[in-house]
Structures are given as structure tokens and as C-alpha cells.
Amino acid sequence: MKRILIITLMMVSFGTFAQTPIDKQAILNVLEKQRLNWNKGDLGAFMQGYVKSDSLLFVGQSGPTYGWQKTLDNYKKTYQGKAGMGQLTFGIKKVDFLNKDVAFVLGSWHLKREKDEPQGYFTLLFKKLNGEWKIFVDHSS
């Protein structure tokens, strides 16, 4: 009995946070779709990587913003037109699963525009909702 309890506890401890490579790839696919849509100048499609909810939290240079629509509005104001958006690249540093439905992503971003090349880092929290991974917290600097 003691042996079964120990094995069960080990399975729960290690198995709860272990995800399949399919989950990690699904998250990377969301980010790749975002990158491609950004580079096409399609902010509406880019935003599909985020949970479409008033609880979405985006933290940037101006502080916290709540809500999908407000986040989209801020992107439109900050990155006007294709020239303002430039060409985006990501450098994914790590993807860690906090539980079976929540993942933490650390990465870097770089924009190549005609007049400048802003860059920085981001931390994201993804949540698996209805079988799809969506960003529900984004802290970009």
C-alpha cells in the first residue's frame, strides 16, 4: 500500500506539469501566426493569439491595460500602418508549463523598420481554453 501511494504521488508530482511536445508546438504555432500576421500588417489577425476577453492583461511601457479591444486599440495607436509595424521577429527563450492548462513563455522581440529597430523582451502566460492555447497575460518591454 505504501509503495502504491509513493508511486501515485510521484506520478502526480511529475505528471501534472509535464506536457506533450504537441502542447509546446501549439504555443509556438500561436506565436508564429502572430509574427506572420504582424508582418502582413494585419493587427486583427495578430490579436487572435490573445484571449478575447475583458480579463486580458497587457503590461507595456504605459502600464497595465485590461481587455482585448483596448489592447488592439493601443496597438493601432502605437504602430500605425505597415511602416509603423515593420518586420517582427521573436526569439523564444523558454516555454514552461505551470500546470496542464497554463504555460509561461519568455522571449525577445525585434522590429525592423525603415527609421529604427526597437527591441525588447516579453513574458507571456498562455491558457488552454476549449482546446486552444491563448495568451491571457502579456508583459512586453
UniProtKB/TrEMBL annotation:
Residues 1-18 form the signal peptide. Keywords: Signal. It comes from the Bacteria. Pfam families: DUF4440. Residues 32-135 form the DUF4440 domain. InterPro entries: DUF4440, NTF2-like_dom_sf. This is Nuclear transport factor 2 family protein.
